Amino acid sequence: MQLSVIIVSYNVRHFLEQALRSVRKALDGIEGEVWVVDNNSVDDSVRMVEEKFPEVRLIVNRDNTGFAVANNQAILQSSGKYVLLLNPDTLVEEDTFQRCLAFMEAHPDAGALGVKLIDGSGKYLPESKRGFPSPWVAFCKTFGLSTLFPQSKLFNAYYMGHLSADETTPVDVLAGCFMFMRREALDKAGLLDEAFFMYGEDIDLSYRIQLAGYRNYYFPETKIIHYKGESTKKGTLNYVRIFYQAMIIFTQKHFTGKKAGLFIAMLQAAIWMRAGITLAKNLWEKLWLPLLDAGLIYAGLIFLKSFWANYYYKDPDWFKPDVLWFNFPLYLLIWLGAVWLNGGYDQRYDLRRLLRGLGIGTLFLAAVYGFLDLHHRPSRALVLMGAVYACVATVGLRSFLHFLEFKNFRIGREQVKKLLLVGSRAESERVIALLNQAGVRNNIIGTIAPDAGTESPEHLSSIERLDEAVRIFRVDEVIFCAKDVRAQDIMSWMTRLGPQLSYKIIAEESLSIIGSSSPDAPGELYTIAIRYNISEPRQRRNKRLFDLGICALLLLTAPVLLLLSKRRRIFATNWRSVLIGRKTWVSYAAHPDNSRLPRLRPGVFSPLAILQDVQPNAAALAQLNYLYAKDWNVWRDLEIVWWGRLSGQSQHHV
After folding, report:
1. Longest dimension (CA), the chain
2. How many CB atoms neighbour CB 421 within 10 A?
3. Percentage of the residues of the chain whose pLDDT score is greater than 70
4. Same domain, residue pair 488 and 552
5. 112: closest CA among 201, 216, 189?
């Protein structure tokens, strides 16, 4: 056996499918095997592999064991002379494995090899080659000196910026997304260290391969796409914690004395610094638009106060000073809170949600206004004028922001991309049908023939003139049909056309069109998929508010409500768990297929409550759960809780 390809997967079904199809092509003519280790995915990855890739050796874990443990499971069972650790969010060229095998055979000193990595927009990824993370190297990386001086040997030794990205050279560290290793070197160096859950294990293994007497090579004569955003969620506190904790484990393992203590202290400081920056960045991303709205509306309310005092009351001091610190903040809280609850900040340019939120907020404010004491009821006219102004100001702000981002004022309309398809007529027609079925609005400019020999009257041109077609028609996105266009040609064109375009790829027989515009963001996906209401952020928020609302109602009216319930203990024993978020009042009925549905906390009641004493079979129960997730709304939960109150049907009885 020449080559064992090992892929560890966790909830990246569509990317895994594309990776496996590219691996299948790259293994043509090679005696090889493919292992997939699934770390308890809930996105039906296992079934997809079983049905579409029967040749793959599959290991299914019941828990997320981590990257190192999962790879070791397959390494111990594999038999190839060479072992490749490959990420599921990658795409390899058709001759990648042949080139790597040839290089390793010609260089017996090579223990491991890495290739040139590009992201989903065709940009070179600097982690293709890395230096050993000494305290100085880590300091420069942590505090941004490597970014300020990207080509400096002194300040950017982490990414070895002084070395050309197009030259084969020995390096210290290879990226874990593609580690092509000699079995003999791996046996001497040892398996991946299972103390690393995720991140750091590639640095540790690269270091140990060198200690075993071998070299690690950066080999840019072949390249792969690494979407990266699917497996590296850099914008999270969890990423910061896991990454730097991995560096601390590495330091404790390979350094001793004062050097280790200094390094660990620096890394711990970096954890707090990076965590603070990440937290601040995430908060700013969520709060900058509400803060702009608040400032704009507050300024308008001050103007309206002065205007109404002078125009109507003929007294510039008519309104008391506390209107500024009590009434106006209250108005803002209610208006913007209603916009938030209606999802107006989930989709920035959705004017319908924005205006609906302001309208609901105004109605609620009118009700609240009547309960305020006379001292805090300055003028109903001020509330109404403020509501009108809030609508005009926030719509105007979004129009301005929309113009800055898209250079037009067509706000509220879905941005329709100009698409260009590269592939045969049959595959292009399949892509168009898939886009229509997936509900993707598009403006398909035309199709490009995959090569000059297949050009027909239906094609705008052959692929040799793709850059001209992109420029002439001002194309926003190019979709490549992998059945007709080789992976190396796709990657070459992505690099040539540049990152200002979006790129997507559809594999042969696949129902998913995959791409990514940023290495730090989740990938983009066009696919025929069920849309679950319960998955939307706005509906998740409403469900949590419903849970808290029922808890508050129980607290305020407990004696009455509990007397009306046949099983009052269900409410009493679960009230605290729902309040602190361990449970939800309504969730799925117990069924083995629930792992395919959006995750919910354990429920007190299930949709079975509305059936009273009827016990459906397994198929009907699965359909009941599916419809609950797909069509969820607050009223459905209210109905289930109401019937659960009468029947006493809880999850414990399912």
Report:
1. 93
2. 26
3. 87
4. no
5. 216
